[in-house]
Each structure stands twice: as C-alpha cells, then as structure tokens.
Amino acid sequence: MQELHDAPLAPLTTFRLGGPATRLITATTDAEVVAAVREADDAGTPLLIIGGGSNLVIGDKGFEGTALRIATRGFDLSGTALELAAGETWTDAVARTVEAGLAGIECLAGIPGSAGATPIQNVGAYGQEVSSTITEVVAYDRTTRETLTLTNAECAFSYRHSRFKEHPERYVVLRVRFALEDADGLSAPLKYAETARALGVEPGDRVPAATARRTVLELRAGKGMVLDPADHDTWSAGSFFTNPILDDAQLAAFLARVSERLGPDVAPPAFPAGDGRTKTSAAWLIDRAGFTKGYGAGPARISTKHTLALTNRGDATTEDLLALAREVVAGVREAFGITLVNEPVTVGVSL
Ligand SMILES: Cc1cc2nc3c(=O)[nH]c(=O)nc-3n(C[C@H](O)[C@H](O)[C@H](O)COP(=O)(O)OP(=O)(O)OC[C@H]3O[C@@H](n4cnc5c(N)ncnc54)[C@H](O)[C@@H]3O)c2cc1C
Questions:
Q1: Active site located where (predicted)?
Q2: Within 10 A of 298 (CB to CB), how many other CB atoms are there?
Q3: Fewest C-beta atoms under 10 Å: which of 4, 83, 274, 324?
Q4: From ligand 1's centre to the CA of 190, what distance in Å?
C-alpha cells in the first residue's frame, strides 16, 4: 500500500484536470482496499475512489480527504466464467477474453478505465452493456461494514446507471463476475447498425469475435474514443452527456420544438428505451443547437472528432471545462427544451 500527501490527481484522470488530494492511497489487494476504506470511515474522512480516472471531473481545488486508487489485479477465467479484480484494466480484460475465443464483451473494447468501475454506470457501447454479462459483483458495503455479493438483479442496472451510482458513497466494488458465451470463436449477435454496416453484415449476425473487437476499436479511434496521449481529442471522459430519455409528453414537446426550429421534415434520432419511453441522441442535440465538432475558442473545446466529447486541449482548468459544459447545456435547453445531464462523476464541483 502506497501513501502520498498533497498528491496531484490530474495525472490520474484522462482529462488531466483537478487539484491535489490531501492523501492518496494506492491499494493493491482487496484487504488493503477494505482497510483503507474502513480507516477513512472510522476517522470521518471524505473518501474518493479512483479507478482509471476516465469518468471523473475533479475540481481545481482538488479533494480534501483520502483518494483511494484501486490497483488490485486478478483475471480468472474458468470455462465461460470470468472474475476480474476491480483494478484490472478493462481493455486488457476484453482483449484476453476475445483471445480465449469467448463472446459477450468484445464490443466493449476500447473503453478506458478499470473493471471495477464498469458496473458503476453500466458501461456500454456498440450494442453491448456490461449488465448483459455480469452475474455478480463483490463489493464492500460502507454502511454495514461488510463485504457482500450482489446478484445481477440486485445491481439494478439501467442505462448508464446502477445501484452503485444511485448510492455513490456506499459501495466499493472489489470483484466483478461475468458469464461469457462460447460461440466457437464468434461474437455475440451484433446489435449496433454501425458495427454491422462496417462489417458488411446484418444486425443480429455473428462475426469472429476478434473481428468485432477490431472493428469497434477502429470505429472508436475514428471518433477519438480510444485513449491516445498524443491526441487531445482523447483528453476527455468519452461522452460528456447521457442520451436523454423522454416520456410521451416530453417527446411531443421536443418534436414540436424540432419542427419549429428545423422544419417539419426533420426527424430527430429516436429509439425505444423501454416502458414506452424514447431515447434521443445527445450528440444530435448538441450539433443541431450549433455546437459542432471543434467548437470553442479556449483551452477546453468540443472534440474535433465527436460532438459528445468535451476535451482539454492541453492547458485547460476544470473551470474552463465546466464553463464549456454549461454553455452547451444552456444552448441545447434554449434550442430544444431538453436539459442534458453529465455522464462523468463530478468531484467538488457541479455543472
Ligand atoms: C476516451 C473515452 C471513451 C469512453 N467511452 C466510453 C464508452 O464507450 N462507454 C461508457 O460507458 N463509458 C465510456 N467512457 C467512460 C469511462 O471510461 C467508463 O465510465 C469507465 O468505466 C470508468 O472507469 P474508471 O476506472 O476510469 O473510473 P473512474 O473514472 O476512476 O471512476 C468513475 C466513478 O466510479 C467510481 N469507482 C471507480 N472504481 C470504483 C470501484 N472499484 N468501486 C466503487 N466505485 C468506483 C469512482 O469513485 C467514480 O465515481 C469513456 C471514457 C473515455 C476517456
């Protein structure tokens, strides 16, 4: 276990933003993680859990308390059952399951960060979400002070949400268990039209899992969604806003605004989101509100490759980033009456 004081947090985030933590602990075993959490809780010290820092916006003033970096390791594959320690690097784990010829998480290739953070916002991309393959999550519960095993149902997964995100101060994920599929080296049926199109197959078809993974990585790289330290378009948290989910009344109001502003022939993206609700595209809203790729004059700008990613061009502060985010939220609200919600977790700041 390593302990540092007045430790800069910016280098631990993909935005490269945020001030220092009073104390930074790096834990490499589950026992060290639990001991550090208990110690902070006993002392009444605020605690910030950090995995890969790829979904964190930390304020310029930093974090007054204990930042706990989870650096545990463990990749155990037995047949189609996979158990990952929270600190495992997610992209490596995906690559290894594909090398083993297994299907289920191949389209989640290229998502930065740790395995332990994947259940927090139920990470998803290109037609897959971890909620489809997670069987159990082992977590330390800070309320009962016990380690428990939660079933998939108990994780209460939904779009970019879970029980863990609902109670952000309560659980520390230690291990995540998955049930993958042995489909003779083939992928899961492709659900995402863009991936199927790129592969020249139909949605619902299977392709070799390695091909699906490679194609997703190529599509993501073209959008600045694969980390590349040399490319400021990837100094981000990926998508900065979640896709809005609208009920019938909200959808009707939105469609009226679109018609009024852009003309009656313009149809915004609309996908069924369960319970009779409709998901629209945050990227479309941002773009149509006038914030196109590369928007911004300061050190924080919209990515030149993807409208949904806000980026640090190198010398931004968190306040620069938040100013841009607030401008986008206000512009979209004014144009379409929809208030975008940030996807990354904010620490010591809010939009
Ligand atoms: C270029 C880029 C592309 C991205 N693409 C996608 C994408 O396609 N789909 C997607 O869903 N996300 C995407 N993201 C967002 C991000 O990668 C994921 O949310 C990822 O799971 C975050 O993992 P992390 O370890 O970096 O979490 P961190 O940023 O370190 O933490 C995020 C939150 O989870 C908490 N946390 C982390 N680990 C634990 C733990 N073990 N126990 C309890 N709480 C914990 C933290 O306290 C914090 O609240 C992208 C980000 C970037 C930079």
A1: 160, 239 (proton donor), 343
A2: 13
A3: 274
A4: 24
